[in-house]
Every structure is written in C-alpha cells, then in structure tokens.
Specification:
Blueprint: H1 31-37, H2 56-68, E1 74-78, E2 84-90, E3 97-103, E4 111-117, H3 127-135, H4 146-153, H5 166-178, H6 183-193, E5 202-204, E6 210-212, H7 229-240, H8 271-285
Antiparallel strand pairs: 1-2, 2-3, 3-4, 5-6
Helix pairs in contact: 1-2, 3-4, 4-5, 5-6
C-alpha cells in the first residue's frame, strides 16, 4: 500500500515542468539509501566503512533502481512562514542529481539552495540553519524525526565555523539513525571537509539576512546568479524563524512570500538579476564565446 501524501508534498516546483513527484518515505529507513544520499559527504579519503557494512552488489542494484525509476522522489521539510525545503531526486532523464530547493505556494517556482549533481552548486545551509530546520517540529513534511531531517539536509551544509557541539550532534545522528560503525570519526571528518562545496563563511547583515562567501553559492550576493534580494531575505527568515525585513525602500508587505515583486530568476525589480540576464544574453548570442 502506498503511504498517504504528506500535507506539504509538492505537485509542481518549476515553471517549465509538468510536476509529478513520488512519495517514498520508506527510503529514509533503507540503509542503502543513506550510502547513496551521503556519498558527496564521503570524499577525500573518508573510509565508507565508517558508515557501516554493506554488500557492494546490493548497493549497486539499489543505486540502479533509485536512478532508473523516473518517478522523482521528493522529501519535504517545512520551514517558518509557510515555506518548504524540498530535497528532489531528479531521476527522470539523463541529467540526474539531487536538488535542494525552497518553495512557497505563492511563488511561480522554487528557488535553488544547492545542487548535488555533476555540476555541484552550494552550499545552501549554515550549521545553525541545518539544525534549525531539523528541529523546528513543524508538521506536514516527510518526517518529523530531527535526526533524519538533519541527515537528509546534510549534503547542503557548508559552514567554516560550526559550533563546538556540532560533532557530537552529528555523531549521535549517524550512530542512532544509521548505525554507523565509527560515528565520531565520521562526523569529525565530514565537518572538516563538508562535501563537494566545502565550508563557507557566513555573515548576517543589519536586516538579519544570512549570506555566505561560497564561490558557487546561490546565497552569495557577489555571484552573478545569486538569488534576488527579497528571496535571500525570505529564505533567511524562514530558516531562522523570524519575519523577513524589507530591502532598501521596499514596504514590509513586499517581502511577504506572496508579496515579493522579485520574480524568481527574472529581471523584474532586481538590478542584479537584470545585470545577470544581460550578461547571459550577450554570452549566448556571441558566435565566438571567450572560452
């Protein structure tokens, strides 16, 4: 029997996408799923044996089934202000990978936090934001288990200065949820290297908006394709459970999820978005690109 859909399960996330996302909460109880999901965290010599024993043939067979299913499993973590953080397994075509996106029903489409695919983008979360999303207790998502939520969002982490207790918290999750054979050593190694994006330095501006300095981060305002200012404020507020502050001369109601005039990934009302669009148009129109 199929599990009932959670209240916040998405029907459509992207503008030019017909939607259709599978609900497979049972994957979170499958050890081989976590071998796959956390693979980007296990790099640069981190022994996979620390995660626990596995049958290589069973692992390969599971991976083939996961990526050949073409049903796009999605896992949802509710955030403050009605926003949702979705972990989307894009297995419907050759461009496979895992998307970490934030959405609100009033938005035209979801905004990206991180991509765990051939072209990695991120990070998307600081440690405090990761644990805040894991611990917020909001209903309607795929699971309310804080440990499973933390591990589900872990590949999007990038934080150069995690707090002193981060290693112990992660080790407890790895031990209690996955039965890791070396949870302490694994947690320390993961926090030291932090996946493919590596650690970023986070800062908070006068309006309380959190941004980072990652060269491939959507939350770094210095990057050409950073999120619009209102989206940065809304996502930061949702991850820290507070009200988004208006940007510059915008009215407070403009920064509600249903009132933001900065259309996702468009040139509307966002000078940086307009500059990026002009740059991209010039680049793609040039018959001899400069690379």
């Amino acid at each position: 029997m199929n599990a009932p859909l959670p209240a916040l399960h998405p029907t459509r996330l992207f503008r030019h996408d017909p939607g259709g996302f599978a609900h497979h909460p049972g994957l979170l109880e499958e050890p081989l799923f976590w071998w796959q999901h956390l693979s980007s965290c296990l790099r640069e010599g981190i022994p996979r044996s620390w995660l626990g024993p596995r049958d290589p043939r069973a692992a390969r067979a599971f991976s083939r089934r996961l990526w050949a299913g073409a049903d796009r499993p999605v896992f949802t973590v509710p955030l403050a202000g009605g926003l949702r953080l979705h972990v989307v397994y894009q297995n419907a075509d050759q461009d496979t990978g895992v998307d970490y996106v934030v959405h609100h029903p009033a938005w035209a489409e979801a905004e990206p936090l991180a991509w765990d695919a051939g072209h990695w983008r991120g990070p998307g979360l600081s440690w405090d934001e990761l644990t805040g999303a894991a611990d917020n207790g909001l209903p309607g998502g795929t699971t309310t288990d804080p440990g499973l939520r933390l591990l589900l969002l872990l590949p999007a982490l990038g934080d150069r200065e995690p707090p002193a207790g981060a290693g112990a918290r992660l080790a407890a999750c790895l031990r209690d949820r996955l039965g890791a054979s070396e949870p302490g050593r694994l947690a320390a190694a993961v926090l030291r290297r932090q996946g493919r994006a590596g650690p970023s330095r986070w800062s908070t501006d006068a309006r309380g908006v959190r941004t980072d300095d990652g060269p491939h981060s959507f939350r770094n305002p210095a990057n050409r394709d950073a999120l619009p200012d209102c989206r940065l404020a809304q996502i930061s507020a949702a991850l820290t459970d507070r009200r988004a502050a208006p940007h510059r001369d915008r009215r407070p109601e403009d920064c509600r999820p249903d009132g933001c005039p900065a259309t996702p990934r468009s040139a509307a009302d966002c000078p940086r978005r307009a500059a990026y669009t002009a740059w991209l148009t010039a680049l793609t129109a040039d018959p001899a690109p400069p690379f």
